[in-house]
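Dear Dr. H.,

I hope your travels went smoothly. While you were away I took the liberty of generating a structure for the chain from your last submission, since the lab meeting agenda had it listed for discussion. I wanted you to have the full record in hand beforehand rather than looking at slides cold. The sequence, exactly as received, is reproduced here:
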Amino acid sequence: MRKQISRFSQWISRSSSSPFAFFLATVGVLVWLVSGPFFHYSNTWLVTIATITDVIIFIMVFSLQSRQNRDSKAIQLKLNELIAADQKARDSFIGLEEMTDEELDELDQQFQRLLTDLETNNRPSALHKLHHSIRQEKAKRPSLYKQAEHLVDRIIKGQ
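The corresponding predicted structure, in token form, is as follows:
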């Protein structure tokens, strides 16, 4: 039973992202719009499209989430295989997705220290240059938190 549900979910995900599905949805909405005058734009006419779209959205949320989880797991397994195969890579990176946010932040800080060490030893690699440019770009832009704070301040002062 589980295998059939999984197959059905995969089929829904593949089918819903096709050009034909988009065409079918567009035709369905157009037919609904054209039928409005025949039904005198009644409440039933309005509820029909709302119910149909709600059911489709409900099914799609679970189907797409299932697909996303499966794809994410497959990518993690592939990355784990590459890490295990490369003798220079750290085995501790296998399973990073299971770490807490604090542990990931700590690991990020270790990489930032590594990049700083590379910078002070004047041995910039291509990876170092990339990370350095990312840090410079990041420093130029305010964080989302700062942007939101600024926007809220403007709204409050505007009232």
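Two observations you may find useful: The mean pLDDT is 79. The radius of gyration is 25 Å.

With kind regards,
E. W.
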